[in-house]
Amino acid sequence: MKYIIAIIQPDRLDTVLDALTEDGINLLTVSDVMGRGRQKGVAEVYRSHVEPGNLLRKVKVEIAVSDNRVWQTVDAITRGARTGNIGDGKIFVFDLQECVRIRTGETGEQAIA
Q1: I want to staple 5 with a disulfide (CB 3.0 to 4.6 A). Which of 31, 44, 91, 92 is the partner?
Q2: Going from the N-terminus, what domains does the chain have, and what CATH number goes with each?
């Protein structure tokens, strides 16, 4: 099992969700987050003074998948999030040791299926 975390632009969330749904990936968690990458934030003008921005609004999508669905999931996120511009985001893939469905007590891949 793998745990996938994608940090994407907020305006690309619907496109990413549509791409994931097309590929049959429906179990996920979405959070609003703040962060910065190479663009290092955005400058704001306040009372005629330029204030450097430190953090940008982003969206974090978290998905647990079986090993055979990892690259399908990564591809769907990439298709939905890519604009070709700096700041499109990142995808991180981690090993997931265990998963437990609280309601039924199922474990492992049965809990994320």
Answers
A1: 92
A2: 2-112 (3.30.70.120)
